[in-house]
Design brief:
- By secondary structure, this protein is α+β, with helices and mostly antiparallel strands.
- The protein is 51% helix and 21% strand.
- It contains six helices and seven strands.
- The strands form two sheets. A five-stranded mixed β-sheet has the order 2-4-5-7-6, covered by helices on one side.
- Helix 3 runs parallel beside helix 4 and helix 4 packs antiparallel against helix 6.
- The longest helix has 41 residues.
- It starts with a helix and ends in a 9-residue tail after the last strand.
- It binds adenosine-5'-diphosphate and magnesium ion.
- The site of magnesium ion has 4 residues, from helix 4.
């Protein structure tokens, strides 16, 4: 609806500005981090404070990195890629974390899926964000199912990520897409916002169905054909 459109436009302008600024913040941060470590080793009696400073710098870095995903020049990076290998490489990255949480990653892909015209790195970022959220939603373990299917009638690839985690309460669901919306102690609240922007750039959609206490389904739909990609 209209209000949503206005909001997403505002977010995209803010995102572009912030991404530019983010780039400039990274270098001084690296220097700060280095000298904090140096001081920590010199003044060991104050290591407690220097550790806090170091952790806070890491946190700024995390937030800045999420914005950097938006800043990277991605216009030329669209190519035909195999969606299965993109998802598989993400699964191998998240494998260790899943094991740590006692989470099983279950991957199913249809045979002979058509190639997708897409930005590989940006899509990897989306799947990392979404699957990481699924893992983090299951503190007591469980299963995340990742399924890829091609829908010939709509010429759409569907990537569905289903978890059995805590789910989202309605007030969180209503605010999804807002920057800095997080229910996690160490969250940035930027993962979903960044992801939905990337999917938008692929002319796709990201549908979220969630029930508190039962789990969450993220359905990412990506159109196959270039004509969807023009006028964008
Ligand atoms: P972060 O993970 O840093 O908190 P995100 O943008 O990735 O930021 O997610 C925003 C919020 O949405 C999370 O803090 C969490 O409350 C909720 N959320 C996202 N994915 C899930 C999920 N699979 N299950 C339950 N809650 C989720
Ligand atoms: Mg996240």
């Amino acid at each position: 609806d209209e209000e949503r459109l206005v909001r997403s436009e505002k977010l995209s302008v803010i995102g572009q500005l912030a991404a530019g600024v983010a780039h400039e913040i990274r270098n001084p941060l690296t220097a700060l981090k280095g000298f904090t470590q140096l001081l920590r080793n010199k003044y060991t009696e104050h290591s407690y404070y220097f550790d806090i400073m170091g952790n806070e710098i890491d946190r700024i870095n995390l937030i800045v990195n999420e914005f950097m995903t938006l800043a990277k020049p991605h216009y030329n990076a669209f190519q035909f890629n195999n969606i299965v290998s993109i998802v598989q490489s993400v699964l191998s990255i998240l494998d260790t974390q899943a094991t740590l949480y006692g989470v099983e990653l279950d991957f199913q892909a249809q045979q002979n899926l058509p190639n997708l015209y897409c930005n590989e790195n940006q899509l990897k970022q989306v799947f990392i964000n979404v699957i990481k959220n699924a893992i983090e939603a299951m503190q007591d373990g469980g299963r995340v199912t990742i399924a890829i299917r091609f829908e010939p009638a709509e010429q759409m690839l569907h990537v569905k990520i289903q978890d059995q985690g805590v789910g989202m309460p309605e007030d969180v669901q209503r605010r999804i897409g807002e920057p800095f919306l997080t229910t996690k102690e160490k969250g940035t609240g930027l993962g979903l916002m960044v992801s939905s922007r990337i999917i938008e750039e692929h002319k796709g959609t990201m549908l979220i169905t969630s029930k508190a206490g039962e789990g969450t389904l993220i359905d990412i739909q990506l159109p196959l054909h270039m004509e969807y990609m023009s006028n964008g």
